[in-house]
Amino acid sequence: MLHGAIGAAVQLQPLKRCLSDRFNVYSLDFAGHGGRPYDSDFTIELFANDVLQFVQQQNLDRVNIFGYSMGGYVAMYLAKHHAGKVNKIVTLATKYHWDEVTAAKEIKMLDPEKMEQKIPAFAAILRERHQPNDWKDVLKRTAEMMNGLGNDNPLKMEDYAAITTPSLLLLGDRDKMVTLEETVAVYKALPNAMMGMLPGTQHPIEQVNANTLAYMIDSFFMNDTEGII
Q1: Mind listing the pLDDT tens digit for each residue in 12-45?
Q2: Pick from 143, 155, 50: which is nearest to 95 by CA?
Q3: Which of 34, 126, 140, 177 has a CB 3.0–4.6 Å from the CB of 8, allowing a cystine?
Q4: What is the pLDDT of residues 110-140, one digit of tens each?
Q5: For the domain 9-98+153-222, what is the CATH code?
Q6: Is 45 helix (H, G, I), strand (E, B) or coil?
Q7: Number of H-type helices and E-type strands within the chain
Q8: Quick one: which of 142, 127, 148 has its CA closest to 42?
């Protein structure tokens, strides 16, 4: 299970509990997140390498991946560049479309000073989530990563067309950060994909019904999806 930008593995614990009776469930913090040390800029490639190293350390072979938000993007990046390691993918609330305008809009929401002024409770959560790391630096490096995505999206439509990993793309029907259009576009580009909507669901993972999500993940991972269109 892969968490989202400025997030941490602990956020996925409710979902992990729902799935643990059917799967061996693993989760990890990306570099710089959840207090994990880091010594470089944030990139999708860096986070993908985090997953590859974790898989190797756990002596795992081919894995099913659930990726929330940015975690779903990392999962798709792995499927493109390391297909032999990925069995199936489920993404939720993943932003696939990146350009300069999109990046600028996302970066505006990562201003730590404004967070402390307007949403101090969330700022306190981020401070606690990432300690002993400086949460403001985590936001700064995330913003720089998003700026890079806006300038040169690592996954383009032709890349998705080459990803044959069976995939289920999920989106909340009330998500204000990820559009239905970008999700449908990637769904149509993937040669082996399904798509689903979570009712009454906004973007934050804490507002997702873990039981409903677990049911959809379980159904997709356990069923034979070979040859899906």
Answers
A1: 999 999 999 999 999 999 999 999 999 999 999 9
A2: 155
A3: 34
A4: 999 999 999 999 999 999 999 999 999 999 9
A5: 3.40.50.1820
A6: helix
A7: 10, 4
A8: 142
**Residue whose pair of structure tokens reads 């975690």 in the numeric block:** 71
Amino acid at 32: G
Phi, psi of 2 (to 5 degrees): -120, 130
Burial of 175 (0-12, 13-18, 19+ CB in 10 A): buried
For residue 163, give every residue at least 6 positions away whose Cβ sits within 8 Å of its Cβ, in sequence order, or none: 76, 79, 80, 83, 190, 191, 192
Residue 34's φ and ψ, nearest 5 degrees, are 60, 25
Domain residue ranges in the chain:
9-98+153-222
3-state secondary structure of 96: coil
Give strand pairing partners of 217.
none
Structure-block tokens of residue 32:
């710089």
Please check the confidence at residue 222 and state whether its pLDDT lies above 60.
Answer: yes
191 exposed, middle or buried (CB, 10 Å; 0-12, 13-18, 19+)?
middle
